[in-house]
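Quick one: structure for this chain?
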Amino acid sequence: MPHAMLHNLLHNKILHERTVFLTVKNEDLPRVPSSQRVQVENLGHNCYQLNIHYGFLDERDIPQALSQCKEVGLDLDPMQTSYFIARQNVIPRVGSGMALWREALFATMSRNARDAADYYRVQANRVIELGTQVEI
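Got it. Here's what it folds into:
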């Protein structure tokens, strides 16, 4: 179960009417044709597995890919879609085996990394980030 879904279930104690598990797959090709980009599998009980394939030169654009889902039987309204994204906050810990300055540097780089919503061009007002703290 994805961490974001688990945290949502534990906190809100609800399961949404329709749930789509989204997996982005990066292929070893420069570009994936638009006709092969989206695969939808009906898991039953109004749950779906959605796989989106991108080549290493393709721009990642989740809302654009979701618009293609209508062609394969899954109609998603962009203004009715919420994105639950897991975020991990890395915290350095003394005595874990790695030099503390390296842990601190890694934690700083992790904090400054581009967030997933921006990378995948998801509208910020449609995103719910659920996070955990990870000690290294």
